């Protein structure tokens, strides 16, 4: 029989399973105090300590209800979990109403958003359709069936809550919503940390182990770079030394926006880290967050950091992306990805940018850690056009109101500075250039000669590639790469020919790149046909590169894989036209712009050519800068009585990848076969298993999946992942093979 809860009975926040007794449970007042203290500390980083303190005290007031206490006792459940789950007791609505009663107005609404959403995520302010009405703040505040409270702890003086910023202008609603999301982050992290400390003290102790300080990391990096400076006194390394010196000098400048425009091979990875650590030490900034558009760049960046920082990297560096290898995803890394409590974070643009617009608790949890940080955006020009405006506003908020320094890193030219026709850009007077004479730097690092071959048939192109002993050919589709590889193998020794595309799983690509690098290092013949994924920051060096039609930014990236180390007087980059156009969408649009500018700029790599290209590609696309209408979800009229902030709608609209491709698990090696067999046996696909799966996934378009299904080559798992059953359909050289699967490639999307 479960004991009844009375007004005189102690109130609890969390229970513990047997053999623990009621005497071991966590008192509710203690939990509220601990969350309050933590949230205040976190929010203090952006001048909102009192906001965090109040949130912490009020977020679980609903747990004082008899219904909730009876629920805890009867279920012996450690936590309330998701309140929308049947059988759960709504304990957050009371706190949201309490905030409106005690504070009211816009300030009360901001608190109410956070309290109401601390389990289920930030709600919309109002319903846009009847099916979602019950999840809105408006509905929650007027909800009739809310557990009543017989008593509450005595409330002290409620502090006067002032916004640490002054919202104004056309973006006032966005600024208020951004503040609410940062405040929400402090509550989520504080609540989860306090709960973990009680329910799982061993994990909490692991998390609290001391991490290296910024000064120690800077010292380790400085020692490493000093040691490297005496090696190979080439022209390229002298330029890299100049870039490093510029970064050291600029680190003393006050926080804000910086740009680091260094051509590929100019050493910006470690130079930008040197700037970031020195700048953080000089201005007491808390961490360095590095975001890049592709996992290949992230993995290489993290590996360089590990080499430079030595043993300190084990507890200083957190690598946060879906394809991380198990060896690198240590216990420390797993814990730190939850809330970014680490000195150095290396992550994807997807993870960073989508979190800045998220409504769900897990992605929002880490956001407050961005305050007072250095944020390095590698390949900063790759922000999708349709999200330019909201993304640039978010970066402005971080710099203007949250004490951040943002470094815009690019191997081409800045595409984000405000100029005529691009009024949403960052004011050029605000961005400090780290490297000084950018044009001179690009000229000194010009290591290739550009030639144009005109239109080539696939047979002619394969003949040319076969005559080269070391060559990389980059094309625009997986289908084209596959066909060209087959033609090349018929003309050159097969052991000298390689293929790279996303029809190969990540682990396969990683191993293929390792073999390619080894052949190049040993001076052996090496001919590689690849899709544009090779341009995603892959550290590789060919004497000759062929590039199918592409935008100038892609041409620059392709050229960065040629004579990368400057060991030749000049590498060769040959631009050619294909028999078919690039795929519809951005690839074709970019290639057409590049073609339009060819007569004006013989060398597409020069800064003035790239600037003209971006002017056409980004700066003239007014109608697309917020195509998904993310900003429209935040009403700018703050004179209205109610804040009209649609957090969930904004999060749903801000999706960098809207991909209709379907994941297929490939039994690439013994580990992948074991995972496949576990899923075939019906084992649940938990978080850890799904993380392992990512390295063995190939994403396919629906029409290819239909063909695979019709030939009984795949079966669907309840996790949503399809499993490749016939291993012969996946080949060692090309990955998923249409020919081996008996599928006509002409029927398929690229």
In short:
The chain has 29 helices and 21 strands. The protein has 750 residues and is of the alpha/beta class. Residues 1-8 have low confidence and may be disordered.
Helix and strand topology:
Layout: E1 12-14, E2 26-27, H1 28-43, H2 49-58, H3 66-75, H4 92-102, H5 105-116, H6 137-141, H7 172-199, H8 201-207, H9 214-228, H10 235-250, E3 257-261, H11 268-282, E4 287-292, H12 295-309, H13 313-316, E5 317-320, H14 331-339, E6 344-348, H15 349-356, H16 361-365, E7 373-377, H17 388-401, E8 405-410, E9 432-433, H18 438-444, E10 448-455, H19 458-467, E11 470-474, H20 478-489, E12 497-500, H21 506-521, E13 526-530, E14 544-547, H22 552-559, E15 571-577, H23 586-597, H24 607-619, H25 647-653, E16 662-665, H26 670-680, H27 687-693, E17 697-700, H28 702-710, E18 714-716, E19 722-724, E20 730-731, E21 735-736, H29 738-741
Parallel strand pairs: 3-8, 3-9, 4-6, 4-7, 5-6, 7-8, 10-15, 11-13, 11-14, 12-13, 14-15, 16-19
Antiparallel strand pairs: 1-2, 16-17, 18-19, 20-21
Helix pairs in contact: 1-2, 1-7, 2-7, 4-5, 5-7, 7-8, 9-11, 10-11, 19-20, 23-24
Give the % helix.
40-55%
The parts where pLDDT drops under 50 for at least 5 residues are: 1-8
The count of helical stretches stands at 29
Distance from first to last alpha carbon? 64 Å
**Using DSSP, what is the number of strands?**
21
Strands side by side in the biggest sheet: 5-6-4-7-8-3-9
Shape, principal axes of CA atoms: globular
- The overall pLDDT, averaged over residues, is 89
For the sheet with most strands, the description reads: 7 strands, parallel
């Amino acid at each position: 029989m479960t004991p009844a809860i009375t007004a005189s009975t102690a109130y609890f926040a969390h229970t513990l399973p047997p053999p623990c007794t009621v005497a071991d449970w966590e008192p509710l007042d203690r939990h509220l105090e601990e969350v309050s203290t933590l949230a205040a500390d976190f929010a203090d980083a952006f001048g909102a300590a009192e906001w965090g303190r109040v949130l912490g005290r009020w977020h679980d007031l609903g747990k004082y209800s008899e219904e909730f206490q009876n629920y805890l006792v009867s279920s012996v459940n450690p936590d309330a979990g998701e309140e929308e789950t049947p059988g759960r007791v709504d304990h957050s609505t009371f706190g949201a109403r309490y905030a409106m009663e005690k504070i009211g107005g816009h300030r009360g609404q901001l608190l109410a958003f956070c309290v109401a959403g601390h389990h289920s995520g930030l709600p919309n302010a109002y319903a846009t359709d009847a099916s979602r009405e019950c999840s809105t703040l408006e509905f929650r505040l007027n909800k009739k069936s809310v557990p009543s409270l017989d008593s509450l702890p005595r409330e002290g003086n409620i502090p006067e809550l002032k916004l640490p910023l002054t919202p104004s202008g056309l973006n006032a609603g966005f600024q208020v919503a951004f503040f609410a999301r940062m405040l929400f982050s402090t509550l989520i992290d504080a609540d989860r940390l306090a709960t973990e400390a009680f329910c799982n003290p061993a994990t909490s102790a692991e998390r609290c182990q001391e991490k290296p300080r910024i000064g120690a990391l800077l010292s380790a990096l400085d020692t490493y770079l000093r040691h490297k400076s005496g090696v190979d006194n080439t022209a390229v390394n002298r330029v890299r030394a100049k870039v490093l010196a510029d970064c050291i000098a600029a680190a003393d400048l006050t926080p804000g926006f910086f740009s680091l425009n260094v051509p590929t091979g100019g050493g910006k990875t470690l130079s930008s880290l040197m700037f970031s650590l020195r700048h953080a030490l000089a201005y007491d900034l808390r961490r360095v967050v590095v975001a890049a558009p592709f996992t290949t760049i992230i993995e290489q960046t993290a590996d360089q950091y590990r080499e430079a920082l030595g043993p300190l990297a084990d507890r200083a560096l957190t690598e946060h992306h879906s394809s991380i290898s198990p060896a690198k995803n240590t216990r420390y890394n797993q814990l730190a990805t939850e809330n970014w409590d680490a000195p150095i974070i290396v992550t994807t643009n997807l993870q960073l940018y989508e979190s800045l617009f998220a409504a769900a608790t897990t992605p929002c949890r880490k956001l407050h850690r961005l305050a007072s940080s250095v944020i390095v955006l590698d390949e900063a020009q790759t922000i999708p056009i349709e999200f330019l405006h909201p993304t640039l506003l978010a970066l402005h908020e971080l710099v203007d109101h949250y004490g951040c320094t943002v470094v815009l890193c690019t191997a081409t030219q800045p595409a984000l500075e405000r100029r005529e026709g691009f009024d949403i850009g960052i004011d050029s007077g605000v961005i400090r250039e780290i490297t000084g004479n950018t044009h001179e730097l690009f000229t000194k690092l010009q290591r290739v000669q550009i030639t144009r071959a005109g239109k080539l048939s696939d047979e002619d192109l394969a003949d040319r590639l076969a005559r080269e002993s070391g060559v990389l050919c980059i094309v625009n589709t997986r289908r084209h790469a596959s066909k060209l590889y087959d033609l090349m193998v018929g003309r050159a020794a097969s052991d000298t020919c390689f293929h790279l595309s996303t029809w190969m799983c990540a682990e396969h690509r990683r191993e293929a790149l390792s073999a390619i690098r080894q052949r190049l290092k040993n001076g052996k013949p090496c001919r590689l046909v690849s899709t544009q994924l090779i341009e995603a920051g892959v550290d590789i060096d060919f004497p000759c590169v062929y590039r199918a039609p592409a935008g100038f930014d892609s041409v620059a990236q392709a050229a960065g894989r040629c004579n990368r180390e400057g060991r030749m007087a000049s590498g060769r980059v040959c631009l050619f036209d294909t028999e078919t156009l690039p795929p519809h969408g951005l690839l074709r649009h970019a290639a057409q712009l590049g073609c339009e500018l060819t007569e004006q700029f013989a060398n597409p790599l020069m800064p003035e050519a790239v600037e003209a290209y971006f002017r056409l590609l980004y700066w003239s696309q007014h109608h697309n800068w917020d195509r998904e209408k993310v900003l429209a979800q935040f009403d700018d009229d703050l004179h209205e009585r109610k804040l009209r902030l649609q957090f969930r709608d904004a999060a749903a609209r801000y999706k960098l990848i809207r991909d209709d491709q379907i994941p297929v698990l490939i039994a690439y090696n013994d580990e992948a076969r074991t995972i496949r067999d576990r899923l075939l046996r019906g084992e649940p696909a938990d978080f850890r298993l799904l993380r392992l799966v990512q390295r063995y996934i190939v994403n396919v378009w629906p029409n290819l999946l239909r063909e695979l299904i019709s030939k009984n080559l795949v079966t669907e798992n309840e996790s949503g992942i399809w499993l490749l059953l016939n291993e012969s359909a996946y080949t060692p050289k090309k990955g998923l093979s249409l020919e081996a699967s008996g599928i006509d490639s002409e029927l398929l999307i690229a």
